[in-house]
Each structure stands twice: as C-alpha cells, then as structure tokens.
Design a protein that fits this description.
Helix content is about 20%, strand content about 30%. By secondary structure, it is α/β, with parallel strands linked by helices. A six-stranded mixed sheet has the order 4-3-2-5-6-7, sandwiched between helices. The protein has a three-stranded antiparallel sheet with strand order 1-9-8. Helix 1 crosses helix 2. The radius of gyration is 16 Å and the shape is globular. The structure holds inosinic acid (IMP) and magnesium ion. The site of inosinic acid has 19 residues, from strand 5, helix 3 and strand 8.
Amino acid sequence: MNHKKEPCPLFSRDEIAAAVNKLSIEIGREYRGKCPLLIGVLKGSFIFMADLIRSLDFPLEVEFIEVSSYGSSRKSSGRVRMIKGLTAKVTGRHILVVEDIVDTGITISFLIDYIKKKRPASLKLCALADKPARREVPLSVDYLGFTVPDKFIVGYGIDWDEKYRYLPDICYLEDE
Ligand code: IMP
Ligand code: MG
C-alpha cells in the first residue's frame, strides 16, 4: 500500500515533553520507593519509554515485550501474536505496562491477561495515546498522555508499516 500524503502534525515535541513530564509526576506519586518494573510494548513504545524513565527520578527496572497484530495494514487484524515474551520475574512486583497507543484494546487486554497469570503485586497501564472511538474491549488507561481522534497516528516511535517512527512530533496520516 502506498500513500502520497504528508504526515500532518497533531502534537508537537514540546507538547509531548510536557505530557511526559506530567505523567512522570503522577507515576512518581504511586511508584516511588516500590522499584516498579516498567514493561514496554515493542516496538512502538521505545521512544516514549526512553523519555519517560529519564524523567522518573527513583529506582525502577525496565523490560520489553513484543507483540504484533497489525502487519502492513492500517486496520488491526484482531489477532495478537507474541513475538517476545517476558524474561524478568513478575510475580510479586509492581508492574506498569507502557504502551504507545490503545485502539481497539485487543492488544492490551491480551497482554494484561498474560501478565496477570504471573501474579504481580499490582498491574497498571500507561499509554502515550488513547483512541477511544475504536474501543472493542472495555478498558481504561491509568496514566494517559493524549486522547487522539480516530485517525492513523505516526511518529515519536509509532509507525505505519515500519515507517515514520523517527518523526519527533505525533502526526496523523490522511485517509487515502
Ligand atoms: P489495539 O489492539 O487495536 O488496541 O491496537 C494496539 C496496537 O496497534 C498498538 O500497540 C499500536 O502499535 C497499533 N496501533 C493502533 N492504532 C495505531 C495508530 O493509529 N497508528 C499506529 N499504530 C497503531
Ligand atoms: Mg504497540
């Protein structure tokens, strides 16, 4: 699939930095002194995770998990495939899942079930963006950066078919 339109800016790097800073204050209130394990969902969360942890000024650990549900289509396939599971010990730990964007909720509900089976002490969700218009599985985001419209989002780590991750701003792609 080809698209010829330019990505349109939605949130600037300054707005993202302010949102990350606000999230780090909220997360600090809850997790300071608990040495939480932040589990980033690859690949889309890698830039968000890098900025978020550098604004958290207390001990924590980082782990990544990789799932895939999109392929090169702009619509979710509705199926979640585990590409890289967890190696860190989760039982008894305070877990914060760090996701790029929650859309239908299928990916995150799959991951929450997977992590819950490992009996963490607590489990919460932090997402850079939420697209509530397309939710199929009811779930709420505990720590949210931005609510986004029903558009295809790219930039700041988020891709379309592996492209646009490098854009420093959050953008959307026009429908073809
Ligand atoms: P869900 O399972 O439909 O909630 O989709 C979640 C996953 O799909 C996220 O982890 C994203 O990686 C990807 N995704 C959802 N919406 C978008 C988007 O607008 N742009 C890029 N990726 C998206
Ligand atoms: Mg993702």
